[in-house]
Amino acid sequence: MDCNDNYIYTDLALESYKSVENTLPHGISYCEYDSGGITVSELRVTSEEGAEALGRKKGTYITLSVGRLWEDERDASDNAAKVLSQNINDMMHSVCQSPERVLVCGLGNRLVTPDALGPAAADKIRVTRHIKEENPRLFSEMCAYDISAISTGVVAQTGVETAEFIKGVAKTVSPSLIIVLDALAARDVDRLATTIQLCDSGISPGSGIGQKRKEISKETMGVPVMSIGVPTVVSSATLVYDALYAAGDEVDAKLKNVLETGRSFFVSINESDVMISTMSDVISLALNRVFFPE
What we know:
The structure is a single chain. The chain is α/β, with parallel strands linked by helices. The chain has one domain: HybD-like (Rossmann fold). Helix content is 39%, strand content 22%. The protein has helices spanning 13-20, 48-54, 74-95, 117-122, 129-134, 136-142, 155-158, 162-173, 218-221, 236-246, 253-261, 272-291; strands at residues 28-35, 38-45, 59-65, 101-107, 146-153, 177-186, 195-199, 225-235, 266-267. Strands 1, 2, 3, 4, 5, 6, 7, 8 and 9 form a 9-stranded mixed sheet that branches. Strand 1 and strand 2 (38-45) form a beta hairpin. The longest helix has 22 residues, at 74-95. The radius of gyration is 19 Å and the shape is globular.
Protein backbone atom coordinates (compact mmCIF):
# COMPACT_ATOMS: atom_id res chain seq x y z
CA MET A 1 0.00 0.00 0.00
CA ASP A 2 1.20 3.50 -0.83
CA CYS A 3 1.43 5.99 2.03
CA ASN A 4 0.17 8.59 -0.45
CA ASP A 5 -3.31 7.01 -0.37
CA ASN A 6 -5.73 9.55 1.09
CA TYR A 7 -6.76 7.30 3.96
CA ILE A 8 -3.21 6.55 5.06
CA TYR A 9 -1.80 8.96 7.61
CA THR A 10 1.74 9.00 8.93
CA ASP A 11 4.18 11.52 10.33
CA LEU A 12 7.06 9.07 10.07
CA ALA A 13 9.48 9.72 7.24
CA LEU A 14 10.73 6.15 7.56
CA GLU A 15 7.28 4.77 6.76
CA SER A 16 7.01 7.03 3.72
CA TYR A 17 10.45 5.83 2.61
CA LYS A 18 9.54 2.15 3.01
CA SER A 19 6.49 2.61 0.78
CA VAL A 20 8.55 3.90 -2.16
CA GLU A 21 12.04 2.49 -1.56
CA ASN A 22 11.94 0.41 -4.75
CA THR A 23 11.37 3.48 -6.94
CA LEU A 24 13.50 6.09 -5.21
CA PRO A 25 14.41 9.23 -7.13
CA HIS A 26 17.71 11.05 -6.90
CA GLY A 27 18.39 12.88 -3.67
CA ILE A 28 17.43 10.31 -1.03
CA SER A 29 19.94 8.34 1.02
CA TYR A 30 19.22 5.80 3.73
CA CYS A 31 21.23 3.71 6.17
CA GLU A 32 20.70 1.69 9.34
CA TYR A 33 23.08 0.96 12.18
CA ASP A 34 23.09 -0.35 15.72
CA SER A 35 23.72 1.96 18.66
CA GLY A 36 23.63 0.46 22.12
CA GLY A 37 21.36 -2.34 20.95
CA ILE A 38 18.92 0.10 19.33
CA THR A 39 18.37 0.19 15.57
CA VAL A 40 18.92 3.72 14.29
CA SER A 41 17.71 4.61 10.79
CA GLU A 42 19.06 7.71 9.07
CA LEU A 43 17.17 9.14 6.12
CA ARG A 44 18.49 12.16 4.25
CA VAL A 45 16.41 14.03 1.70
CA THR A 46 18.58 16.39 -0.32
CA SER A 47 16.61 17.15 -3.50
CA GLU A 48 13.21 18.62 -4.33
CA GLU A 49 12.49 15.48 -6.34
CA GLY A 50 13.15 13.31 -3.31
CA ALA A 51 11.10 15.56 -1.07
CA GLU A 52 8.14 15.34 -3.44
CA ALA A 53 8.38 11.56 -3.68
CA LEU A 54 8.28 11.17 0.11
CA GLY A 55 5.94 14.03 0.84
CA ARG A 56 8.58 15.39 3.24
CA LYS A 57 10.70 18.51 3.36
CA LYS A 58 14.38 18.31 2.59
CA GLY A 59 16.32 17.42 5.70
CA THR A 60 17.61 14.64 7.94
CA TYR A 61 15.25 12.21 9.66
CA ILE A 62 16.60 9.96 12.41
CA THR A 63 14.43 7.11 13.66
CA LEU A 64 15.17 5.09 16.79
CA SER A 65 13.40 1.74 17.15
CA VAL A 66 13.33 1.45 20.93
CA GLY A 67 10.63 -1.16 21.52
CA ARG A 68 7.94 -1.19 24.20
CA LEU A 69 9.96 0.54 26.89
CA TRP A 70 7.07 0.76 29.33
CA GLU A 71 7.15 -3.05 29.57
CA ASP A 72 10.93 -3.26 30.07
CA GLU A 73 13.26 -2.66 32.96
CA ARG A 74 14.32 0.88 33.80
CA ASP A 75 17.73 0.21 32.24
CA ALA A 76 16.10 -0.06 28.80
CA SER A 77 14.64 3.45 29.11
CA ASP A 78 17.93 4.83 30.35
CA ASN A 79 19.73 3.26 27.39
CA ALA A 80 17.17 4.67 24.95
CA ALA A 81 17.60 8.12 26.48
CA LYS A 82 21.36 7.83 26.16
CA VAL A 83 21.21 6.92 22.46
CA LEU A 84 18.61 9.62 21.81
CA SER A 85 20.73 12.25 23.59
CA GLN A 86 23.71 11.40 21.37
CA ASN A 87 21.61 11.90 18.24
CA ILE A 88 20.05 15.11 19.58
CA ASN A 89 23.45 16.52 20.40
CA ASP A 90 24.85 15.66 16.96
CA MET A 91 21.89 17.16 15.12
CA MET A 92 21.73 20.21 17.39
CA HIS A 93 25.30 21.18 16.61
CA SER A 94 24.81 20.34 12.95
CA VAL A 95 21.92 22.77 12.46
CA CYS A 96 23.15 25.47 14.85
CA GLN A 97 26.79 26.45 15.23
CA SER A 98 26.24 27.99 18.67
CA PRO A 99 23.03 26.72 20.31
CA GLU A 100 23.48 28.77 23.47
CA ARG A 101 19.80 29.68 23.89
CA VAL A 102 17.28 26.89 23.37
CA LEU A 103 13.49 27.14 23.46
CA VAL A 104 11.79 23.77 24.05
CA CYS A 105 8.12 23.65 23.01
CA GLY A 106 5.73 20.89 24.05
CA LEU A 107 2.96 20.66 21.45
CA GLY A 108 -0.40 19.02 22.00
CA ASN A 109 -3.39 18.80 24.32
CA ARG A 110 -2.41 17.62 27.79
CA LEU A 111 -6.08 16.71 28.49
CA VAL A 112 -6.08 14.05 25.74
CA THR A 113 -3.72 11.26 26.76
CA PRO A 114 -2.34 10.22 23.34
CA ASP A 115 -1.73 13.89 22.52
CA ALA A 116 -0.11 14.77 25.86
CA LEU A 117 3.44 13.67 25.01
CA GLY A 118 4.76 17.15 24.20
CA PRO A 119 3.46 18.92 27.33
CA ALA A 120 4.43 15.97 29.56
CA ALA A 121 8.02 16.03 28.27
CA ALA A 122 8.31 19.84 28.37
CA ASP A 123 7.21 19.81 32.03
CA LYS A 124 10.34 17.79 32.90
CA ILE A 125 12.91 19.99 31.15
CA ARG A 126 15.33 21.73 33.50
CA VAL A 127 14.98 25.41 32.60
CA THR A 128 17.75 27.92 33.29
CA ARG A 129 16.86 31.22 31.62
CA HIS A 130 15.51 32.69 34.86
CA ILE A 131 18.70 31.70 36.71
CA LYS A 132 20.83 33.45 34.11
CA GLU A 133 18.85 36.64 34.63
CA GLU A 134 18.69 36.45 38.43
CA ASN A 135 22.11 35.00 39.25
CA PRO A 136 24.57 35.08 36.32
CA ARG A 137 27.41 33.69 38.45
CA LEU A 138 25.41 30.63 39.50
CA PHE A 139 24.29 30.14 35.90
CA SER A 140 27.87 30.14 34.61
CA GLU A 141 28.82 27.49 37.18
CA MET A 142 25.93 25.08 36.59
CA CYS A 143 25.35 24.99 32.83
CA ALA A 144 26.27 26.24 29.39
CA TYR A 145 22.77 26.57 27.93
CA ASP A 146 20.06 29.16 28.39
CA ILE A 147 16.96 26.92 28.42
CA SER A 148 13.31 27.97 28.23
CA ALA A 149 10.36 25.58 27.98
CA ILE A 150 6.69 26.12 27.16
CA SER A 151 3.58 24.03 26.49
CA THR A 152 1.53 25.55 23.70
CA GLY A 153 -1.80 23.77 24.00
CA VAL A 154 -3.81 23.45 20.79
CA VAL A 155 -5.67 26.08 18.80
CA ALA A 156 -9.07 24.74 19.97
CA GLN A 157 -8.01 25.55 23.55
CA THR A 158 -6.19 28.83 23.01
CA GLY A 159 -7.58 30.32 19.80
CA VAL A 160 -3.97 30.94 18.83
CA GLU A 161 -2.09 29.04 16.14
CA THR A 162 0.76 27.04 17.69
CA ALA A 163 3.25 28.58 15.28
CA GLU A 164 2.09 32.09 16.23
CA PHE A 165 2.37 31.24 19.93
CA ILE A 166 5.93 29.98 19.55
CA LYS A 167 6.95 32.88 17.36
CA GLY A 168 5.65 35.33 19.96
CA VAL A 169 7.62 33.68 22.76
CA ALA A 170 10.69 33.47 20.53
CA LYS A 171 10.62 37.24 20.05
CA THR A 172 11.01 37.59 23.82
CA VAL A 173 13.60 34.90 24.59
CA SER A 174 15.55 35.17 21.30
CA PRO A 175 16.51 31.48 21.01
CA SER A 176 19.29 30.33 18.74
CA LEU A 177 17.46 26.99 18.39
CA ILE A 178 13.87 25.80 18.84
CA ILE A 179 13.11 22.16 19.72
CA VAL A 180 9.50 21.03 19.39
CA LEU A 181 8.15 17.89 21.04
CA ASP A 182 4.97 16.30 19.71
CA ALA A 183 2.86 13.17 19.45
CA LEU A 184 2.75 11.75 15.93
CA ALA A 185 0.59 9.47 13.80
CA ALA A 186 1.88 6.17 12.41
CA ARG A 187 0.79 3.99 9.52
CA ASP A 188 1.90 0.75 11.25
CA VAL A 189 0.29 -0.04 14.60
CA ASP A 190 3.48 -1.82 15.69
CA ARG A 191 5.29 1.52 15.68
CA LEU A 192 3.02 3.08 18.28
CA ALA A 193 5.27 4.31 21.12
CA THR A 194 8.09 2.03 19.97
CA THR A 195 9.66 4.59 17.64
CA ILE A 196 11.21 8.01 18.21
CA GLN A 197 11.69 10.36 15.26
CA LEU A 198 14.16 13.23 15.28
CA CYS A 199 14.37 15.66 12.37
CA ASP A 200 15.89 19.03 11.47
CA SER A 201 13.23 20.27 9.05
CA GLY A 202 10.64 21.44 11.56
CA ILE A 203 7.06 20.24 11.88
CA SER A 204 3.49 20.94 10.77
CA PRO A 205 1.31 20.17 13.84
CA GLY A 206 -1.58 17.81 13.08
CA SER A 207 -0.38 16.92 9.58
CA GLY A 208 -0.30 13.21 10.45
CA ILE A 209 -4.03 13.19 11.14
CA GLY A 210 -5.02 15.39 8.22
CA GLN A 211 -5.32 18.62 10.24
CA LYS A 212 -2.30 20.50 9.02
CA ARG A 213 -1.61 23.72 10.92
CA LYS A 214 0.93 26.45 10.25
CA GLU A 215 4.45 25.13 9.85
CA ILE A 216 7.06 25.53 12.57
CA SER A 217 10.39 25.65 10.78
CA LYS A 218 13.45 27.77 10.19
CA GLU A 219 11.60 29.52 7.38
CA THR A 220 8.74 30.60 9.65
CA MET A 221 10.63 31.07 12.94
CA GLY A 222 13.85 32.63 11.67
CA VAL A 223 16.04 30.18 13.63
CA PRO A 224 16.77 26.44 13.20
CA VAL A 225 13.97 24.13 14.35
CA MET A 226 14.37 20.51 15.40
CA SER A 227 11.49 18.18 16.23
CA ILE A 228 11.29 15.09 18.39
CA GLY A 229 8.19 12.94 18.17
CA VAL A 230 6.69 9.60 19.09
CA PRO A 231 3.79 8.02 17.19
CA THR A 232 0.86 7.49 19.56
CA VAL A 233 -2.14 7.02 17.22
CA VAL A 234 -3.06 5.18 14.04
CA SER A 235 -5.95 5.79 11.64
CA SER A 236 -8.99 3.50 11.93
CA ALA A 237 -9.16 3.37 8.11
CA THR A 238 -5.65 1.93 8.08
CA LEU A 239 -6.66 -0.71 10.62
CA VAL A 240 -9.65 -1.69 8.45
CA TYR A 241 -7.44 -1.99 5.39
CA ASP A 242 -4.86 -4.07 7.26
CA ALA A 243 -7.55 -6.43 8.60
CA LEU A 244 -8.95 -6.98 5.11
CA TYR A 245 -5.49 -7.41 3.62
CA ALA A 246 -4.56 -9.97 6.30
CA ALA A 247 -7.77 -11.87 5.54
CA GLY A 248 -6.85 -11.98 1.86
CA ASP A 249 -9.67 -9.67 0.74
CA GLU A 250 -9.18 -7.29 -2.14
CA VAL A 251 -9.77 -3.59 -1.54
CA ASP A 252 -11.84 -2.70 -4.60
CA ALA A 253 -12.51 0.81 -5.86
CA LYS A 254 -15.83 1.11 -3.99
CA LEU A 255 -14.33 0.18 -0.64
CA LYS A 256 -11.30 2.35 -1.28
CA ASN A 257 -13.63 5.28 -1.90
CA VAL A 258 -15.36 4.63 1.43
CA LEU A 259 -12.02 4.56 3.22
CA GLU A 260 -10.92 7.78 1.55
CA THR A 261 -14.12 9.77 2.01
CA GLY A 262 -15.52 8.25 5.19
CA ARG A 263 -14.97 9.69 8.65
CA SER A 264 -11.79 8.22 10.10
CA PHE A 265 -10.97 7.92 13.77
CA PHE A 266 -7.59 7.70 15.40
CA VAL A 267 -6.92 5.09 18.02
CA SER A 268 -4.13 4.45 20.49
CA ILE A 269 -2.97 1.50 22.57
CA ASN A 270 -4.61 0.40 25.83
CA GLU A 271 -1.58 1.41 27.87
CA SER A 272 -1.55 4.97 26.49
CA ASP A 273 -1.24 6.57 29.93
CA VAL A 274 1.84 4.64 31.01
CA MET A 275 3.20 4.87 27.46
CA ILE A 276 3.02 8.68 27.51
CA SER A 277 4.63 8.76 30.95
CA THR A 278 7.50 6.52 29.90
CA MET A 279 8.21 8.12 26.52
CA SER A 280 8.02 11.67 27.91
CA ASP A 281 10.53 10.57 30.57
CA VAL A 282 12.88 9.24 27.89
CA ILE A 283 12.70 12.42 25.79
CA SER A 284 13.13 14.80 28.73
CA LEU A 285 15.97 12.73 30.17
CA ALA A 286 17.73 12.76 26.79
CA LEU A 287 17.38 16.53 26.46
CA ASN A 288 18.50 17.17 30.04
CA ARG A 289 21.58 15.03 29.39
CA VAL A 290 22.39 17.17 26.37
CA PHE A 291 21.90 20.41 28.27
CA PHE A 292 23.61 19.21 31.47
CA PRO A 293 26.23 16.66 30.35
CA GLU A 294 27.90 16.49 33.75
